[in-house]
């Protein structure tokens, strides 16, 4: 037992703790939309590997799920190179433009301007997904970038059928559409969204994808696309420059790794908060034999671990290229032991006892995730985002791209919540070329049972969903049960357990409330987990998509 960390120079020493697995001999892809999944399989059939498939799936999701991801946003891809037995984290997160300042969303009194970091081009960071697709294809793929992007280009040209999730987001964004005609002309062609099933062609997006396919980085970060993005952004009040786009670079980082209950877990490093938070929570839980407790006490302890980890997320985490993130401290067993000593079995710790901050309000979430395993054992966990529903709801004319609103993921003012009700400190303050803190948590689980490739959208709830999925997989749950399980979440502030209907029984609710927990049932299901598992004993490979995304028998 014990949670052990491997980062940086000690990473290779720990790889030997889990024997190398044989090749699975079959491939599996789980994504949020069947057209994206098919695009990935088509690339594999054409001789591509998992990394080619990741490019095809990522690009296609940006076309069929424009409310969640796309070339106007960013991404994290966690890679496993089977032949080298090596893991790589590809950081294509957005960056703040050069003209960004710490107080750019504050008024003369120092208070946040409502909507300033949420709507329009001023809310957008310089996008990284396009650079990430080029990087994956050129460094790790077997096929040309153009081959991997062909499906996305074709779907954009022909049109994707309007589906329910797309329509829900458009209803949410209706009030902002009139402000930026390029966005409205695509998504509200007659003043209203298209009907379910009606094709929505995106010719400008197809042309932008084609320039990327033809010229790689220069087809997006320089030339016509770059000029359209900068001109459109600045005409509507943005601050992007051609230099901002030209200087964008993907960063390869060492993934964070640790062991819990004999399972090796590999997850995202900063600027993601996911890997550190998950390690911290599991380290706290490692001090308990959870099998000894009744179900409600087990959930109480998980919530308390979440509370402590999210408190540290708010206080310490940011872009490690700009601030000193105490990774080893936050992931150490000794640190977790100190946190554990403050946890009571019979009562919740009020979050106010940990720190005094401004109470948050408001909510929102949208992102997408996919998981890929190829026949050779290469694998990818990819999480992409433009942040909230339809990002900033701004489209630079002629590009077909919806720009992200990831600037809202910075702490626009210390201890003031963002749209996901997350707070932050100076560690996550806005600075030129800095990457905002993220909750995206693409993760690998490896143990005697086999392998699981896990991730999900869900804003701040991503971290807790991956934690619960990891615990369930370690307990032997099948993939179908893992993605369908009812979820609960605590993020330190607001000091409340949010949960899906059915996550707690009536008696469990009563016990949790008697222990001082505040409960809030979510008005709708959350998350859209896509998981691939490989069972070593049976050889079975499964790809399972969250049932929350299934509408009328189809996966969306």
Task: Summarize the structure in words.
By secondary structure, this protein is an alpha+beta fold. It folds into two domains: 18-248 and 365-412, no CATH class; 253-363 and 441-551, Orthogonal Bundle (Serum Albumin, Chain A, Domain 1). The chain has helices at residues 11-15, 34-45, 50-64, 129-140, 145-158, 164-177, 181-187, 203-215, 218-221, 223-235, 242-246, 274-285, 295-316, 327-330, 333-341, 461-474, 479-484, 506-514, and strands spanning 5-6, 28-30, 74-81, 86-92, 160-161, 199-200, 251-253, 256-260, 263-267, 368-373, 379-385, 443-446, 450-454, 488-489, 497-499, 519-521, 530-535, 541-545, 550-551, 554-555. A seven-stranded antiparallel β-sheet has the order 1-8-9-12-13-17-18. Strands 2-10-11-3-4-7 form a six-stranded antiparallel β-sheet, with helices on one face. A three-stranded mixed β-sheet has the order 14-15-16. β10 and β11 form a beta hairpin. α5 packs antiparallel against α8. The longest helix is centred in the middle third of the chain and has 22 residues, at 295-316. The radius of gyration is 22 Å and the shape is globular. It starts with a strand and ends with a strand.
């Amino acid at each position: 037992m014990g949670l052990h960390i491997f980062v940086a120079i000690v990473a290779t020493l720990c790889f030997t703790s889990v024997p190398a697995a044989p090749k699975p001999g079959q491939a599996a892809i789980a994504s949020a939309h069947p057209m994206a999944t098919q695009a990935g399989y088509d690339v594999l059939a054409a001789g591509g590997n998992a990394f080619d498939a990741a490019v095809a799936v990522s690009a296609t999701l940006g076309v069929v799920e424009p409310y969640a991801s796309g070339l106007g946003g960013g991404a994290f891809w966690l890679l496993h190179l089977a032949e080298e037995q090596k893991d790589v984290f590809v950081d294509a997160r957005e960056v703040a433009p050069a003209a960004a300042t710490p107080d750019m969303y504050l008024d003369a009194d120092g208070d946040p301007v409502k909507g300033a970091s949420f709507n329009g081009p001023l809310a957008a960071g310089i996008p990284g997904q396009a650079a990430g697709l080029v990087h994956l294809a050129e460094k790790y793929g077997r096929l040309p970038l153009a081959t991997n992007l062909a499906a996305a280009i074709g779907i954009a040209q022909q049109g994707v059928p309007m589906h329910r999730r797309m329509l829900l987001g458009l209803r949410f964004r209706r009030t902002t559409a009139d402000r930026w005609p390029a966005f409205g002309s695509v998504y509200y062609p007659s003043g209203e969204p298209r009907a379910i099933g009606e094709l929505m062609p995106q010719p400008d997006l197809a042309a932008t994808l084609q320039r990327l396919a033809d010229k790689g980085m220069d087809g997006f970060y320089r030339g016509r696309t770059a000029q359209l993005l900068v001109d459109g952004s600045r005409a509507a009040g943005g601050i992007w420059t051609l230099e901002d786009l030209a200087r964008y670079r993907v960063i390869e980082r060492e993934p964070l790794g640790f062991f819990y209950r004999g399972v090796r877990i590999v997850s995202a490093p900063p600027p993601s908060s996911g890997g550190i938070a998950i390690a911290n929570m599991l380290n706290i839980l490692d001090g308990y034999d959870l099998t000894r407790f009744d179900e409600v006490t087990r959930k109480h302890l998980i919530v308390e671990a979440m509370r402590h980890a999210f408190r540290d997320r708010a206080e310490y985490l940011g872009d490690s290229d700009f601030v000193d993130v105490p990774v080893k401290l936050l992931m150490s067993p000794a640190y977790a032991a100190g946190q554990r000593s403050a946890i009571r079995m019979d009562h919740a710790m009020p979050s106010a006892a940990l720190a005094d901050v401004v109470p948050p309000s408001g909510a929102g979430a949208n992102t997408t995730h996919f998981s890929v395993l190829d026949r050779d054992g290469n694998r990818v966990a990819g999480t992409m985002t433009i942040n909230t529903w339809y990002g900033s709801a701004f489209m630079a004319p002629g590009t077909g791209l919806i720009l992200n609103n990831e600037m809202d993921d910075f702490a626009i003012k210390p201890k003031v919540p963002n749209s996901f009700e997350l707070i932050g400190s100076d560690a996550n303050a806005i600075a030129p070329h800095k990457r905002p803190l993220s909750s995206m948590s693409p993760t690998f689980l490896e143990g005697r049972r086999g392998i699981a490739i896990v991730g999900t959208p869900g804003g701040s709830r991503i971290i807790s969903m991956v934690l619960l999925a990891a615990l369930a997989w370690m307990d032997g749950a099948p993939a179908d049960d893992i993605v369908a399980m009812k979820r609960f979440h605590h993020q330190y502030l607001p000091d409340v357990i949010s949960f899906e209907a059915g996550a707690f029984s009536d008696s469990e609710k009563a016990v949790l409330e008697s222990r001082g927990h505040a409960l809030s049932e979510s008005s709708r299901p959350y998350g859209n987990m896509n998981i691939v598992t490989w069972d070593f004993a049976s050889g079975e490979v499964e790809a399972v998509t969250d049932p929350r995304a299934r509408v009328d028998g189809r996966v969306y």
